[in-house]
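Support request, please re-run this one:
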Amino acid sequence: MPVYVYETIPQSDADLPLTFELRQSMSEPCLTAHPDTGAPVRRVLSGGLATFTGTGAAPMRGGGGCGSGCGCAS
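Re-run finished. Output below.
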């Protein structure tokens, strides 16, 4: 099961967002409230690291471009 990052939505200028992680099934709906406090929350989109093997995207190195001859701008 993936781990999702959530943060509370500040209700005033004095509030700071509280960030927490939650292990959920991909089929479960996003949380709308903090499980302990009931404060409204939003899911934070974060980039993960992916490993591509065989054909497909290659990680960018140095000056840009994928280096696989795909024709993208370097």
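The chain has a mean pLDDT of 78. The first strand starts at residue 3 and ends at 8.
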